[in-house]
Every structure is written in structure tokens, then in C-alpha cells.
# Entry
Amino acid sequence: MPSVFCAVAALIVTAGSQAAPPPASTSHDAPRGLHRWIDFQSGTIETRYRHIESSAGETTANQIQHKQAFKGALKLDAAGHYTLQSSLGTGNSFTGSWDATGAGTGQPAWDFRVRRLFVQAVPISGFELSAGSFDALRGEGSEITTLDNDAYLEGYRVSIKRPSRLRVDEVAVTLAYLGDLNEPNVFTRLDRMSDHNYSQILVAKRRTLAARGAAGVTGNGPGRDEIAISFDWTALEGVDTLRQAVRLASHALTLVDGVRFEHYWRISGDKAYGFAIVADRALTQRLTAAGGFSHTDRNFPPLNGDRYGRGKRLLAEMRLALRPDLTLGVFYTNGFANDFPVAGNRRLDVVMAYNVLKALQQAHLW
# Structure
């Protein structure tokens, strides 16, 4: 597998070397102050009530939790071509970024750690090299059939985003280690850089079809008609899985604004397949709704989103923007017709999320 990685990297370097480097920043548009050094990418403070019931009818969680998550980068050069990327947040596991408040089940906790840390180099436009502990690439798929949004890997990644040359928007190769599921602290996991049990090759393509409706129109409102497709091959501990996902947003979809279909097929080991289909619609300028159906097999590794787990299930979600920086969300899922035990068979989440970055931007502090 390392030989495949080297071959793809050589192809990327060859394609990228034919392009001129991006223009250097000029003095009048160079970032100043903290912006010269810090790229603050996202920051949220959240609280949620969750109730989980197993397929045996047992309540396994009935509690209020809290979460803090921040993502940013230290820029080693003014243009940001060479950075140290970091993600900090709460949670004590590979699939968990929430801590208990002590209200309801669970003891109060605050497990705030550096969860991901990696160096990223963009020596020429559209060519990225990453090394360290980073997130998983999901393409157009979601955490329903891929890895949890809180997942972390330790390893190396090369990515090319040169659609004019490759006819696809992105080709990425990852060689990494996936494990230490109960140790989110990155500094105790970086010794895994020399280990390898996870490989992925991902290809993604997006295409704009047409302009969409005028601003202010509800339902199929502002934006673009777009179709996006991704395909990846992933090997974990010698088990190969193929994944495909397609997302369509179009005014031609009269009842919804967009729909996503994702599918996986485990082609070695315990062979099986699964899929999910989810549609969404903007009901007003502030209120959006989504719903769908998912099916993952009984031996699906417990590494996907903990809100979904395994089995057949219906799911629904609504989000209300109370303010530009404050959102109320409600999520509900219910499993059915599963012939095996499901720990999170029925689940309700009510989440209040405060967007720190947006608040700072609105106050002109960042």
C-alpha cells in the first residue's frame, strides 16, 4: 500500500508542478495583528438534553450535557500556505464530544482536550500535504454510513484539488491509524504515526447545474442547483469497504430543497451493505427541516455517528435560528424491524448551540 501512496503522490506533484504558484500577498491585503498568525475557523458552545432508549425498552441515558468545540490554525507564513491545524473540545471518546453536567444520568465532567493536531502544507495551489492527527474525509457522505464527526486519525494525507487538470474536484489518499477509541487527547496518540491500519482513496466531483431562486424566497430559496458525487475505497484492519454518495440540490425538487443518498458495501471480511437517504427543506428563512431513512448492518463497526448506530431507522431533525449566532435544534430517531439488539433504538436530542465565531464577527471583534 505505501507504493500506491507514493505513486499517487508523484502523480499529484507532476500535475501540480505545471501550474504557477499562487501570487504572493501584497502589503495592502496582508493580514495584520492576530490575523497574521491565527486562523480562527469555528467555535461553538452547546448544551443538550438527550433521552435514549434501547430496543429492550430500557432507558440508557436521560441527561443534560454540555459541549465546547474550537478549531483553528497557527499560520507559519502570512499567506497561510503552511499551518499548524488544531481542534480542541470536550468529550472522552472517538465518537463522543459531549460531557455530562450532572443533571440526570452520569456524573459531571469536563474533558476538554486537544483532539486533533496536524501540520498542513500547500506549496502550490490545489496541492495539500498533511501529517499528524486529523479528521476523516467523508466526501458527500455523512456520519451515518462513514465515521463519526468527532473521529480522529493519526497519519499522512496527500490531496489534490485541481479540477481543470484531473476532471474531478478532489483526489485524496490517506494512510493512517484508527484506534485508541477512549483516548481523545492527541498528545497520547501521536506515537501512532508509525502504525498503519487505515487506508483510503477518495475521489469527489461537484457540478453546478443552474442558478436558483431569488433571495428571500422560502422553500427552494437562494443558492445554486448542484450535484455532487464522491466515491472512496477504505481499508480498516484489512477489511475493504466501498462507499458512494450523491447530493442533489435543485429547484426541480418540488417538495424538498435537496436530497442526499449514501451507500456502503463491505467487500471483504463479513460482507454486507447499507445506505441512507435524507432530504431537507427550508420552511422559512430561519427554520429548516430534514428527514430520512437509514439502514446499517448488524456487524457495522460502532464508529459512525453515535446518534444513528446500527440497524433500520427513521430520523428527523429541525433547526431554528433564533439569532444569527444562536440555534435551537431537535433530533429524533426510531429504530424498527431489527432482528438484533440496538442500544440506541429510540433517541431524542434537543440542542442549543451558540456560535462564538459568528458572535465575534458580528461584534467586529474578529
About this structure: The longest helix spans residues 2-17.
